[in-house]
Design brief:
Length: 397
């Protein structure tokens, strides 16, 4: 006797647990008027498993499951033996009023109906080759889009600088500031989603990674890497043999779920700022620099990273300015070709005034924050709060 495979039974159990989404006549009419390739594709997704509502497998599986669980109260053993379905979890009493005969009778039409449903589930969950092909092509398009937009921050920064020069303004007003905050926040969001999609589609699976999210982001390792990179850039920029040291206090096994790329960016930017402040306060010809301290604390809610330096601090009047997009105390913006090729791109030490505001957006994107506390005449503490509950959704504006 034909028996459904365990994989098929698992699929049925999986899909039948989702609630089906109701569609009204009005929705169908609205959706179906002047259908384009896009809307027709959406409709097919709605019917396929790739759509979160997984309509057709859900409908079919929940119907099939109903057919399976309609069983005779007096023949449970026989039923289990026949179907190979161990212990179907049915509500007590539900089957008593059910037309059990339709499936309990192996020669009857009920069983035929069941077989039809099985075949359809099998069809519905196996991916047609054109879907696989579509995924590949769509991923390629997304990769191209992402690549095309790589230089946007730099080009925009240069545009803002031109504006600053033309208008001879030292500060940008609130309107431009909040426009840029929204612009860059949405850019981070789009790039996060595209990056995730591309990674899911193309990267070979890495342990502890789901797309670009690392379920066990090791803070110590990332911090060490950021320290090395920031010190290297600092040595190149000031022509130093040895950049200020960075003392790292972090438990070696401190892991949490995060996007490592975001954390690296924030650490690199804050460390560069501290190294620059230390070198410029003590003089690049100084024999020895006071070390920068990077301290990582693990709380229940947050992972907090403090970057402390003895780089003279920021005057209190300038604190609000450090979060604006063109505030920098570097005299001239470093020259950068906006069509730079990423592989030979050298990260600038400073000069765009983008390090802090963009890092704060990254921190806020997943429910964290970035704060700067200064003791003018002594040094600065930057606090990076990262939400470790992983429950906060992306900020919708
Ligand atoms: P950039 O580094 O390109 O100037 P940032 O947004 O990273 O842009 O920083 C803006 C400004 O804030 C810096 O130019 C500097 O004047 C000030 N700043 C940031 N971090 C520190 C720090 N740790 N110590 C002193 N000043 C700082
Ligand atoms: Mg900076």
């Amino acid at each position: 006797m034909w028996k459904p495979t365990q994989a098929l039974m698992d699929t049925i159990t999986h899909y039948s647990q989702f609630p089906a989404t109701g569609v009204s006549l009005r929705q169908m009419v609205q959706f179906g008027r002047n259908p384009s390739a896009g809307t027709l594709f959406k409709a097919s997704q709605f019917l396929m498993k790739c759509h979160p509502s997984r309509e057709s497998p859900i409908g079919i599986c929940s119907r099939l499951r109903k057919l399976l669980v309609f069983r005779s109260p007096s023949f449970p053993e026989k039923y289990v033996k026949k179907t190979g379905l161990a212990n179907p979890d049915i509500e007590p009493g539900a089957y008593r009023s059910s037309p059990w005969l339709i499936t309990a009778n192996s020669t009857g039409n009920g069983r035929k109906a069941q077989r039809r449903y099985y075949a359809t589930v099998d069809d519905g969950v196996r991916w047609p080759p054109e879907i696989v092909d579509y995924n590949k092509r769509f991923t390629k398009t997304l990769q191209n889009i992402k690549h095309r937009h790589d230089p946007v921050v730099t080009t925009m920064a240069m545009g803002i600088n031109e504006y600053k020069r033309k208008r001879q303004r030292m500060q940008i007003d609130n309107t431009i500031q909040s426009f840029l905050d929204r612009f860059y926040m949405s850019r981070i969001g789009i790039r996060m989603l595209i990056g995730q999609h591309v990674a899911l589609n193309s990267a070979p699976e890495q342990e502890d990674y789901v797309g670009i999210i690392c379920t066990k982001t090791n803070v110590r390792e990332l911090a060490q890497e950021a320290i090395e990179n920031a010190r290297f850039v600092c040595e190149e920029y000031y022509g130093l043999f040895d950049a200020p040291k960075v003392q790292l206090v972090c438990k070696p096994d401190l892991n949490f779920m995060y996007v490592p790329g975001h954390l690296s960016h924030m650490l690199f930017e804050t460390l560069k700022n501290s190294l620059r402040a230390v070198v410029e306060t003590h003089g690049s010809d100084s024999e020895e620099f006071p070390p920068v301290k990077l301290i990582v604390a693990e709380g229940k809610e947050d992972i907090t990273i403090k970057v402390s330096d003895e780089g003279g601090g920021v005057p209190r009047s300038a604190i609000p300015l450090v979060w604006t997009y063109m505030y920098t105390t570097v005299e001239s913006t470093p020259p950068i070709d906006p069509d730079f090729n990423k592989s030979d791109f050298k990260a600038p030490m400073a000069g765009f005034g983008y390090g802090l505001p963009i890092s704060r957006l990254y921190a806020r994107y997943f429910g964290g924050d970035l704060k700067l506390i200064s003791m003018e005449g002594y040094g600065t503490d930057v606090y990076l709060h990262l939400n470790r509950l992983s429950s906060s959704s992306e900020p919708l504006q």
